[in-house]
Amino acid sequence: MGDYCYTNQQLSDVGILDLPDIFMISVFKLFDLKDRLKFSKVCKKWNELLKDGSLWTSIDLRNYKNDLSLNDLKNLIQLYGSESSKQIYICGNYSLHYTSKLNKIDFNSENSKLHELDSCFIKNILSIKCFQLQTIILEYLDLNSLNFKDFSYLQNLKILSVKWCNLNEHFFNVENDKKSNMEQLYLIKSGKFTLKDIQNICHKMPYLNTLSINQAQSSIRDDSVEFLVEHLKNLERLELTNTLISDFGIKSICESPYFAKNLKYLNISMSSCLTNNCLLFLSENLSCLKSLYLTSCFGISNVNLLQNFVNLNYLNLNNTSIEREKIRQSLLPVLPKCEIDFGHEKMLNRKLMWTINGSQLNKKFIMDPNLKRKWHCEENEDDLMILNDILNDSETKLATYLSYTERYFKRYYKLNIKYPNNDHLVLMHSNKVAVCFIAPTHPILNKEKFKVTKVEFIQNVNEEMSGKHKHNAKNVNTMQPICKVYCQILKREENELDEQYFLLYSCLNAKLIETNERLLKNPGLIQEKPFTEGFYAILLPKLDTLNEQIADLITHTEYLEARKDVYSEKDN
After folding, report:
1. Any idea where the F-box domain is (predicted)?
2. H or E segment to which residue 138 belongs
3. Of 305, 320, 335, which residue constitutes the final position of a domain?
4. Would residue 526 count as lying in a domain?
5. Which of 272, 305, 320 corresponds to the end of one domain?
6. What pTM did the predictor assign?
């Protein structure tokens, strides 16, 4: 620090270019790659400083997917790649990836964005400039011109992840006996892999501790599993989803002494051939298993077999044949340390888990929202006994969890629009999209007096609307009618017409992004399912005035107070 001590007079003469190099490099580390490249154009000094290897230990190009060509990528690595570079993330253009499958884009165009990598880039540039590279993550790229041999030039490569990429069918079929030191391989939605591919992976990467073949297009069978079990003895994490593996394949996994000792994570989701027998094999042999994914395994239905997984920390049962009530009654008390994910009730066991693990808190508690009771206990050996007492308490009930609408939408109301009791309900999503309904006190819901016969939309969606921000969408103001609802009067008073219509309004200053066209064919939805399928419009409010618009509406509590004489939420 002695070299950089200045008097007040000297400090007034110091500019940003006079700051120490080590200080400027520390500042550059705070910015992402895009900003650093802009800084390199400020002056020669900054350009040289930005070539410091410590700034390029991780080269993340995911935010460049719409602005980068292959030549740009090569120049970038030539300029800034170094022996300090340990990780690189390359992402192609998402839309180009899918458009290329439809042959609607000219990849020979000079202006085409990054969509593929070639052998020259891997062998002659990346392996020379970044020869200490340990992690490569590739997304949305065409890799048809590559094979696994190209990556063998990166001798220190430990992790290779390929997601939504096009691999040629001979990617792993390389006549090369050289073994790789790779430890983790992720192949996610990147083609159809056969037994031959599994054999090549096992021969070339015998030291893998993680293998993920996700969405394998039902091409992996029991013979593939038997082969990898025999050759990959260090596996701690295995993902084989959307396959044709049967119980015999799971049995071969369980019979491996190496897997029984090392395997901590197993994902066999979307395996349609599995039955309850696989649970028996897994629970008896894989006691070390910590995470198990059984998503969309419809053949699994015996909840009692899952009670044997006493060491699990996470269990995913989404979209299986097991009823949720059985999970609540049979699994939650037996697996208190395990987080069980079975749909929107994922948080249920997490609350119980706090009682045992404490979530690194000195004290922990469980609150029953129905009884307003709390239990406090210190972290000791009696935690499990305390939890069992809670679960066995006949008065204790598991928490009632909020519905999807209650969790993600806020309810606002506008009353007496134009005429008495013309009340409207607006559900505001957390992303600011609003869905419009009639309120519970609207006259239309009096089924003894009215029967909805017809819905006629006054405002229609602009067909030229496009994009995330709904450009060219039709604008509606707060008091603009959206539709007419015609009702037959069932109980007609003297001098009253046979038919009556109600106008439903937008309630917000917004863009009209959808009208419920199902009401045209089935107008009765507005009475039968008034707060779900009976919506009449979806709006995107103008954000600059959203707070003022919400202030003009009333909350659910205020609505209940205003309509307490005619509406009770309990009765509803």
Report:
1. 13-59
2. strand 135-139
3. 320
4. yes
5. 320
6. 0.58
